[in-house]
């Protein structure tokens, strides 16, 4: 008999996971406490921009013409508890306001709400990014609350999906990590992931703390790689070197690898910044804070990048932003996403605005979210409109649209032809050929 799966929390991670589970052939029930999310998803609409997700959802949501009908949504905990053999916890764990630690309240309340109704054997699988030690604590909580007692088990199965590639990363994960305490949990998860495993995804079985740590360790490593290359960019600038050439040259060493070595204004988003901070906070609680003091440096190198970009722009317009028009290309924290959480691009735009610059932002998908966070910035409907009359153009999120744009067309409307590439992603030769002064972080000015 095929397993029935619930997905608790239908945000970014949950909506993708629910649709992917339906794609793998399971009957899926998604649960959320937000009625507007449930209404949208039930109509086959996705509350965020993510390539391919809406199509995948519409292929499975019950009631949509031509769909498999395997995916439904509810707000009813008892219904979810009764329905599922496997319950995936996909609620978010944001950074606590004014603290490094993450906020576990959504996870805790989801576990409590579900557990009370668990009257039959089931496996609860945590996917949220949590401080190490949470799984053991939550297992105790479930045992206390679930009417089915020991017939309900917990497993931890961290999620590594990247925004912009969420569907691909969920259906074809580069590894599946499960932290379990018993064979039954492992067996069930092997059933759930039989499809991706058959296609070659490694299936790694470990204990609770290791599974929890894999996620935070992976994100810390990625953050470290980015801050490392950004530190090299600072040195290159001081020494007259070229960080792009340096990254390419060191990246050919397979032990280092070429990915995540793009210098620029640094990392942002809902994961890397808050995950490294929560990791430091948890290590402190465990008495292991010394082991992670380097992450404080990774964080501060990263935050410094934003200020350096602002300085570079200020210098570019003659030392003061007053009376200057600044075009900002990009608002999302990365391309192919409309997510502006802790976005370096918006942060830079906001700082320049505060220093008196007249900022006009354009982003292919991130504008509605950006307007909510920074309503006082100027916004344009296209790159061309943003650049019209600009004294300087800042390229801060590396959308394909910006790489493919015709620099000559932009040159015809800009007040000054100065472009600062905060992502090292534009082709300097193309821009220079169109009459622009092109500058990038950590690269010599030609
Ligand atoms: C990250 C992890 O990659 C993913 O595995 C985890 O599940 C969630 O966190 P995501 O936040 O979607 O995913 O973005 P990612 O692609 O990792 O990029 C993070 C930030 O780093 C972006 O702001 C990006 O612009 C920046 N970045 C990335 C760089 O500045 N340089 C690089 O070379 C790569």
Automatic annotation (TrEMBL):
GO terms for molecular function: NAD binding; UDP-glucose 6-dehydrogenase activity. Pathway: Nucleotide-sugar biosynthesis; UDP-alpha-D-glucuronate biosynthesis; UDP-alpha-D-glucuronate from UDP-alpha-D-glucose: step 1/1. The keyword tRNA-binding does not apply. Substrate binds at residues 160-163, 215, 260-264, 268, 334. Transmembrane segments: none annotated. GO terms for biological process: polysaccharide biosynthetic process. Coiled coil: none annotated. The keyword Lipid metabolism does not apply. Its EC number is 1.1.1.22. Keywords: NAD, Oxidoreductase. Signal peptide: none annotated. Residues 327-428 form the UDP-glucose/GDP-mannose dehydrogenase C-terminal domain. NAD(+) binds at residues 32, 37, 93, 129, 163, 274, 341. It holds the Pfam family UDPG_MGDP_dh_C. It catalyses: UDP-alpha-D-glucose + 2 NAD(+) + H2O = UDP-alpha-D-glucuronate + 2 NADH + 3 H(+). InterPro entries: 6-PGluconate_DH-like_C_sf (IPR008927), NAD(P)-bd_dom_sf (IPR036291), UDP-Glc/GDP-Man (IPR017476), UDP-Glc/GDP-Man_DH_C (IPR014027), UDP-Glc/GDP-Man_DH_C_sf (IPR036220), UDP-Glc/GDP-Man_DH_dimer (IPR014026), UDP-Glc/GDP-Man_DH_N (IPR001732), UDPglc_DH_bac (IPR028357). The active site is at 271 (nucleophile). Belongs to the UDP-glucose/GDP-mannose dehydrogenase family. This is UDP-glucose 6-dehydrogenase.
